[in-house]
Amino acid sequence: MTVSATKKYKVIGTRPIRHDGADKVTGRAIYGGDVKMTGLVHGRILRSPHAHARVKSIDTSAAEAFPGVYAVVTGADFPDLQDKIANLGEGSVNLADLSANLLARDKVLYKGHAVAAVAARDVHTAEEAVKLIRVQYEPLPSTTWVLDAMKDDAPLLHEDLRTDSMGEKGEEPTNVATHLHFETGDVEQGFAEADVVIEREYKTASVHQGYIEPHVSTVLWNQDGHVSVWTSTQGSFTCRQQTAELLQIPVSQVTVTPCEIGGGFGGKISVYLEPVAALLSRKCGRPVQMTMNRDEVFEGTGPTPGSFVRVKIGATKDGRFTAGEAWLAYDAGAYPGGMIGPGCMCVFSCYDFANAKVDGYDVCLNKPKTQAYRAPGATQAAFACESVVDELAEKLGIDPVELRLINAAKEGTRRVDGPVYPRVGFIEVLEAVKASEHFNTPLEGPNRGRGIAAGFWFNIGLKSSVAGNVNSDGTVELIEGSTDIGGSRTSIAMQLAETLGITAEEVHPKVVDTDSVGYTDVTGGSRVTFATGMAAYECGLDIIAQMKQRAALLWECDASTVEHDEGVYSSNGQSMNFKELAGKLHETGGPIVARGAVSPEGSTNTFGAHIVDVEVDPETGKTTILRYTTVLDAGKAIHPSYVEGQMQGGAVQGIGWTLNEEYFFNDSGEMQNASFLDYRMPTCLDVPMIDCIIVEVPNPDHPYGVRGVGETPIVPPPAAIAAAIYRATNCRMRELPISPPRLWKAMSEK
User: Fold this and answer.
1) pLDDT tens digit string along 562-606?
2) Is 425 exposed, middle or buried (0-12, 13-18, 19+ CB in 10 A)?
């Protein structure tokens, strides 16, 4: 279902078959594991058995002497790097920390931390050789909970780390890397004006993105010094930058070819294997392929932050929010640079607070370095804020949707961290919730409840480049650098087709390597259909301008007199469509090659809201999702099926995060459930068909009104489900996951 009052288009808003569909369903698409090369050898990594330990020595001699082994590397093989912050699009990283995360030097900081790597004739030989590497460790105390890591007597991960509090460095060593503070208005006065004040604390566990394809990379460091990489990545240029800087070689000496990607969700932005495989390749003179096992993915790559959030909101009797205060502590994992910034930006982002204060802390502890996961940091913050809003609605006797409408962010609302919203669609989203069949259908039966929650993600712009080549048969080759995770080849091709007045099928999109297209930022931040689509639009305008010149040559007129309308060129009674004019390119000067390059600033600001019905088994605490509806302002849905897919996918991941998923650590800091058998993700048996309502309030900063849609859908589920569980059980759950044992315990105590 789509709620829209926007302009009608010929291509945009339709549902063509995706361009890469045939290759995907027939198994011909080339994923990272499909790369085969002459002389290919295989690499494996030795990982730490300790959550925290000093590395006293590493003896690789037995592994190097093992038959079939071609190379062994350790952290000592990497160049020594000074602190330098690299922007990865959705998050940033200190390159010195990244290097130490790839292969540990003086200390290991989490169980699964990579220590050394082997390249051998086959993966089995490599696995045997890795076991021969002898590492002498000095175990140290560890911690895996964010509040424990903030204590004065907590084991220190980095002796040289000092808290950066709004630009000022602390004097004492600490695990708290960053303290952020945002404030607007007079918070104390705002709470004094409130008739009702609710303050609550919330905890969330670390969860993993859960992509099905593990990390896999193939690297050849050629004799001429050029490094070629074939990898599963969300950003080929980001991968190129990290690889080049970690190896201290120019970016022009690294070519990254992005393979098809079997899921990423933010977890395939940072590099883990590529630079290691490059060092092995340089040593052995052969291409090296490295693939992670599933336990390595869980223990050695970046999950979400575990979090502790305290939220306090005051309101008047008529439901107007007078003040909000939030205190957030997110774990960054082993190295600084977590998701606390977005968490602070998003915690109150759905509402118009004249008075608000937010403090956030980025905390290091003995877990893998956290990475982005679909609206990184926002889900934890929304779980807290939206749960308090639900309690306020009950306390005030106001419908939860009405309370949100009273306080909804709108054009002109200033977020606590500074930005002022342009035209946004949160009010329209809430009105769509009220008008939905789900909202207006009574929920009957015992042990059942309905919950509603909202969510926001700002989305990013960043840089994108495309090129377009016009063929003589009237088709266009579209060259782009955005790796395709969710159908973006088609959504970008559709925007070019709409601009040119041709069909989506007449545009042939291709994702190419870093030598074959201009710089393009990461596929993340819900930016691709927005920003790369904008580049495709600019490319289309370039093609149109050149086609007008060709028509003018044929008709012997001035190009300024040639008009273009939906693929037809005309002047003084003469006309040709796109295909006809393309057929005469060789008569009028040869090929047409066009380009588009953009770097849009600002955010596209996407709001959503979810409705969920649940039933709770009072004997086991198991929660069953009975019905689920997700509402989202897409600005303009380029391909509605893909938008619905993003809405449904985000909701399912949010359901898993809420009910079952968690990193479970023992007292020694060892993850106890590093497999899909024990890490409980939802399957098709756990969720109903998810209904989608697309709202379209055009983004004024995009030619077709596009907003990002990939991340907001994961933000509302925890708070919505928690509200539904409360109405089914009378238990307010404030810790994720709301697993059957935890909920059963709460019901029993109630």
Assistant:
1) 999 999 999 999 999 999 999 999 999 999 999 999 999 889 999
2) buried
CA distance 719 to 440: 20
8 Å CB contact between 352 and 410: yes
So what's the pLDDT on residue 137? 98
The hierarchical CATH code for the domain 461-598 is 3.30.365.10
CB atoms inside a 10 Å sphere around CB 459: 25
Query: What amino acid occupies position 381?
Result: A
At residue 285, what is the residue type? G
CA 340 to each of CA 119, 358, 427, 695: distance values in angstroms, whole numbers, following the listed order: 38, 11, 27, 29
C-alpha distance from residue 680 to each of 657, 662, 663, 740 (Å): 9, 8, 10, 12
Q: How far apart are CA 396 and CA 567, in angstroms?
A: 57
CA–CA dist 691, 716 (Å, integer)? 15
Strands 563-565 and 568-571: antiparallel
User: What is the C-alpha to C-alpha distance for residues 515 and 256, in angstroms, rounded to an integer?
Assistant: 8
Task: Tokens for 301, please give them.
Answer: 């790559």
What was the pLDDT predicted at 323? 98
The DSSP call for residue 559 is G
Determine contact, residues 422/345, Cβ cutoff 8 Å: no
C-beta neighbour count of 122 within 10 angstroms: 11
CA–CA gap between residue 692 and residue 713 (Å, rounded): 11
Q: Which of 342, 447, 347, 425 is nearest to 388 (CA)?
A: 347
**What is the CATH code of the structural domain delimited by 141-421?**
3.30.365.10
What is the four-CA torsion angle of 389, 391, 394, 395, rounded to 10 degrees? -100
Q: How many C-beta neighbours within 10 Å does residue 83 have?
A: 9
Per-residue b or e along 609-644, where b marks 16 or more CB atoms closer than 10 Å to that residue's CB: bbbbbbbbeeeebebbbbbbbbbbbbbbbbbbbbbb
Measured between alpha carbons, how far is 671 from 110 in angstroms, rounded to an integer? 10
What local confidence, expressed as pLDDT, does residue 82 receive? 79
5 pLDDT higher than 60: no
pTM above 0.90, yes or no: yes
Is it the case that residue 366 has pLDDT exceeding 70?
A: yes
Question: If we measure between CA atoms, which residue out of 527, 528, 526, 571 comes closest to residue 549?
Answer: 571
Residues of the chain with CATH 3.30.365.10: 141-421, 461-598
Q: Are 455 and 205 in contact (CB under 8 A)?
A: no
Name beta bridge partners: 362. 178, 330
Query: Does the pLDDT value for residue 525 go beyond 80?
Result: yes
Q: Nearest-CA neighbor of 606 among 639, 650, 654?
A: 650
